[in-house]
Design brief:
Layout (H helix, E strand, L loop, with lengths): L6 H4 L28 E6 L6 H17 L2 E6 L2 H12 L7 E4 L6 H6 L7 H7 L7 H4 L3 E2 L9 E2 L2 E2 L2 E9 H6 L8 H13 L12 H12 L4 H9 L9 H15 L12 H9 L5 E5 L3 H7 L5 E4 L9 E3 L2 E3 L7 H11 L2 H8 L16 H15 L14 H14 L4 H20 L2
Helix pairs in contact: 2-14, 2-15, 9-11, 11-18, 17-18
InterPro entries: Bact_solute-bd_prot1 (IPR050490), SBP (IPR006059)
Protein name: Extracellular solute-binding protein
Pfam families: SBP_bac_1
């Protein structure tokens, strides 16, 4: 989720724990939706004031009213769930339902260990597959090795996320810059800001923002086959090919031209985001997870968003998922709760509070800025433009990509050398996964 994409790779080192095959049954747990006298134990890590937190609180009320069951909600820290999931879900302390991070090394790993319930029957029963585009379904399905994109359903996302361009409307107006419609327009806009002594891009190379910009640049030269090769190991990735060579060379060029500050080498995502909030930079390329915060914290200027110009593919995915542990005692009730979070009412609450719903009715979204956020997401999903995130393919690639881009900014390695090293690290990680 959002800033936490690194967790996609963080626990695959535990792959030695994998059990043979995936569980496809619901065991002896109760599949009934009659909740009288029952308690559903639910874990998630969303803030109470976040879009999802607000919507899911309402979903709990709806669920209790419809089923007669009570919900025992336990707030957990993201890292707490990530680091203990295998142990807890393999015990009698497992909750009935929890929010969990999507991807090979997290939900995929647990599915391959037989710790998550196969949801194929529930998907058919409730029609969740009809509410999720094919690209959003990718992270909900896992094969017997825990690799996403095929196999059975082991989770259901009810919100989405993607990366877009945030811009300071006041700074654009001050320097006579129009919203770019093409990639060349974007470059001209950045040059105009630089000519006026303003560094255009709020950036961070110590954490994810620059890696996502690098990936977006590659995506401007890529197609869906390339994404499938990079993300799903369907073909060999050429690290000296046009897509990745262009991305790395362009980042280097933008550093040399002053579009990206060399100080970004040591900055974190929070530094870049708060600098944009403070009005120090006119452009910030980052995720929809910043949207609600910007709505709350930007007081001194007008801001807006647009999709990266000249690209049909952009970083993004379905959000983190509801999963049901194999050891859950109330599986039927857990499925019912998931379905409630997919209803128009709850989806609209996500959308009107700065989140990105996956199944909301456009007419139910009343907040103007939220309409813009959701319209951009719908444009991407409508074009099959969701391309996941650059660090997803291997357990360690998040840190390796950040390190490589830091070396690029610092000038200790040229683009060709950076790509050579990243390509070697990427392939080593892919080989470890696919040869298990």
């Amino acid at each position: 989720m959002r800033k936490k994409h690194l967790a996609i790779g963080a626990v695959l080192a535990a792959g030695a724990l994998m059990l043979a095959g995936c569980s496809g049954s619901s065991g002896s747990s109760d599949d009934s939706t009659d909740g009288k006298g029952k308690t559903l134990t639910l874990w998630h890590y969303e803030g109470e004031d976040s879009a999802m937190g607000k919507a899911w609180n309402e979903a709990i009320k709806e669920f209790e009213s419809e089923t007669g069951a009570k919900v025992k909600f336990e707030a957990k820290a993201f890292e707490q769930i990530r680091s203990t999931a295998s142990q807890v879900l393999n015990s009698n302390q497992a909750p009935d339902i929890l929010e969990y991070n999507k991807g090979n090394a997290t939900a995929g790993l647990l599915a391959s260990q037989g710790l998550l319930t196969n949801l194929d029957d529930a998907v058919k029963k409730y029609g969740w597959d009809k509410k999720l585009s094919s690209s959003l379904q990718t992270t909900a399905k896992y094969d017997d090795k825990g690799i996403m994109g095929s196999g059975s359903w082991y989770g259901v996302p009810n919100y989405g996320e993607y990366v877009e361009v945030y811009y300071n409307k006041d700074m654009f107006a001050k320097y006579g810059v129009e919203v770019p419609k093409t990639f060349d327009d974007l470059v001209k806009a950045m040059q105009t800001f630089k000519d006026n002594g303003v560094t255009p891009l709020a950036e961070s190379a110590a954490e994810y923002p620059l890696g996502q910009l690098w990936y977006q640049l590659a995506l401007t030269k890529a197609d869906r086959k390339w994404v499938d090769d990079y993300q799903l190991y369907k073909g060999k990735v050429n690290w000296q090919g046009s897509e990745l060579s262009y991305a790395t060379k362009t980042v280097d060029d933008w550093v040399q031209k002053g579009y990206i500050s060399k100080d970004a080498s040591g900055l974190k995502a929070e530094d870049a985001g708060t600098s944009f909030i403070a009005g120090k930079y006119p452009i910030f390329f980052s995720g929809s997870w910043w949207y609600g915060r910007f709505q709350t914290e930007i007081k001194d200027y007008q801001w807006g968003t647009f999709l990266f110009p000249g690209a049909k593919l952009s970083p993004g995915s379905a959000g983190n998922m509801w999963v049901i542990p194999e050891n859950a005692k109330n599986k039927g009730l857990a499925e019912k709760f998931i379905d409630i979070t997919m209803t128009p009412k709850i989806q609209a609450m996500i959308g009107n509070n700065g989140g990105v719903p996956v199944a909301a009715k456009t007419s139910d979204i009343t907040d103007e800025k939220s309409k813009e956020l959701i319209a951009n997401f719908n444009t991407l999903t409508g074009e099959d433009g969701i391309a996941f995130y650059p660090d997803w393919p291997t357990p360690t690639f998040y840190d390796q990509l950040n390190a490589g881009l830091q070396e690029l900014i610092n000038g200790t390695k040229d683009p060709a050398a950076v790509n050579k090293e990243l390509g070697s690290e990427y392939q080593d990680g892919v080989d470890q996964i696919t040869n298990q």
